[in-house]
Amino acid sequence: QVQLVESGGGLVQPGGSPRLSCAASGRSGSIFRLYNLGWYRQAPGKQRELVASITNGFATNYADSVTGRFNIARDNDKNTVYLQMNSLNSDDTAVYYCNAHLYNADYWGQGTQVTVSS
Asked: In angstroms, rounded to a whole number, what is the distance separating the alpha carbons of residues 25 and 29?
């Protein structure tokens, strides 16, 4: 079992650059490096969507809407995955969720709200 806890959300001004963190703990924390990780978001009235992902081999993938603005990174020594967000706009307002999966194991964090507003 893996517990994921996101942090770093909140109220951000347009153009801001917050960084989200997701720390993993639990019995499977020692094999964190094997997990493929992702950040998803869900805006009000919309489906949850993949924002960025990073494999256990450090290959990354981004949604078109965030390419060039967001960066996903992982630190296996700290069991943490990050999402650096830049040039935020109102369309980025959503609850952001961390995901870890490995074979048939799939874990989600509780989510952190990011609201872009002046």
From this structure: 5
Q: How far apart are CA 104 and CA 94, in angstroms?
A: 27
- State the DSSP code for 45: T
Residue 88: exposure state from Cβ atoms within 10 A (0-12, 13-18, ≥19): buried
Q: What is the pLDDT of residues 71-98, one digit of tens each?
A: 999 999 999 999 999 999 999 999 999 9
The pLDDT of residue 61 is 98
The predicted structure's pLDDT at residue 92: 98
Q: What is the DSSP letter of 102?
A: E
Whole-angstrom distance, CA of residue 103 vs CA of residue 112:
25
Q: How many residues appear in the chain?
A: 118
Residue type at 36 in one-letter notation: N
Identify the residue whose tokens are 């965030």. Answer: 66
Which tens digit of pLDDT belongs to each residue from 38-79? 999 999 999 999 999 999 999 999 999 999 999 999 999 999
